[in-house]
Design brief:
Two copies of one chain form a homodimer. The first copy, chain A, is mainly beta and about 190 residues long. The first copy, chain A, has a single domain, classed as Pnp Oxidase, Chain A. In chain A, about 15% of the residues lie in helices and about 45% in strands. Chain A contains four helices and 13 strands. Chain A has a seven-stranded antiparallel β-sheet. In chain A, a hairpin with a 2-residue loop joins strand 5 and strand 6. The longest helix of chain A is centred in the N-terminal third of the chain and has 9 residues. The interface between A and B is large, with 109 and 109 residues. Chains A, B: Belongs to the flavoredoxin family. Chains A, B: InterPro entries: Flavin_Rdtase-like_dom, Flavoredoxin, Split_barrel_FMN-bd. Chains A, B: GO terms for molecular function: FMN binding; oxidoreductase activity, acting on the CH-NH group of donors, NAD or NADP as acceptor.
Chain lengths: ~190, ~190
């Protein structure tokens, strides 16, 4: 028997990514985002939602670019800090001991220490209410070699990204491999 | 040293949700979606991207409604099947032995066996290319009591949802709790 728990954003899992941008002074900044995901295969595109009050909001609009830096779980404290502090008041990269690396493809910095980076050009914005959705075309993905599998593509267990749990404000790690897609479900096919 | 691996949708984690809708004949249908996530806190809203060729595409447009059914990992085979088969040819619920339950709030069915359901009204669509993004306002969330914590909110470890890994087409489970948000990062605050 299901129970109604109201209109809310209880959806699982959500990611914990750092969205990188340069502000009006050219300072590298980043913010943690969980309201984010993939939204299109061709062109490859991702979406991230921000409140207008965020320092990153104006930065992304002005440079029409952002990066997605996907952390390994060992960077949990820094990821959390990037969601607590404001780039208006502090240099978050410096405070957390992380390295802002200038993308050569888009006008935004990424986190040098993180294993997987998506460099994005702003395609469009969608006004939703408290959040504005930024849709970015993925111009390139950059990966540390040690997170790539034999086929040259990233493997999630090697990245070991963080998951964010809305409602309990908690970070989780990735668990076991449970099955292959387009294979496991064939048993129901007649 | 990072390596360029091209323009792609390598982002981690992505979810594995079943999106429920009624087709033109009133038949309950569902499709598996990984290009999906939360996009706004107020109004609470989620996004899911579909190709126009999907049977669900026209269904959601016509009824202006969909549900998000979040599975427990034990339903992996059914989740995968809902991503392989087409509702044009088969009754997926019947084939996989799942129960379509009519939402009382929106004109769409959800998966009765899954622990967490988001009932959504279509707010808008965004044309992106191969995929069209559907944005839905979350009218209500329904949960099995056993996935709720003491505060009445869902706990991710109790839901035990699936994660999807793009590039390796593999499902993972949720791992350990690693830390609390808005707490772990305070050590970098001066």
């Amino acid at each position: 028997m299901k129970k109604s728990i109201g209109s809310n954003t209880f959806a699982y899992p959500t990611p914990a990514w750092i969205i990188g941008s340069y502000d009006q002074n050219g300072k590298a900044n980043g913010m943690t985002a969980a309201w984010a995901g993939v939204c299109c295969s061709d062109p490859p595109a991702v979406t991230v939602s921000l409140r207008k009050s965020r320092h990153s909001y104006q930065s992304i609009l002005e440079r029409e670019a952002f990066t997605v830096s996907i952390p390994s779980a060992s960077y949990l404290e820094a990821v959390d800090f990037f969601g607590i502090a404001s780039g208006k008041e502090v240099d978050k990269f410096e405070a957390a001991g992380l390295t802002p690396v200038r993308s050569e493809l888009v006008d935004a910095p990424y986190v040098g220490e993180f294993p997987l980076i998506l460099e994005c050009k702003l395609l469009q914005t969608v006004e939703l209410g408290q959040h504005i959705q930024f849709i970015g075309r993925v111009v390139d993905v950059k990966a540390e070699e040690d997170v790539l599998g034999e086929n040259g593509k990233p493997e999630m267990r090697k990245i070991s990204p963080l998951l964010y749990s809305p409602g309990e404000s908690t970070y989780y790690g990735v668990g076991e491999i449970l099955g292959k897609a387009y294979t496991s479900g064939l048993k129901f096919k007649k």
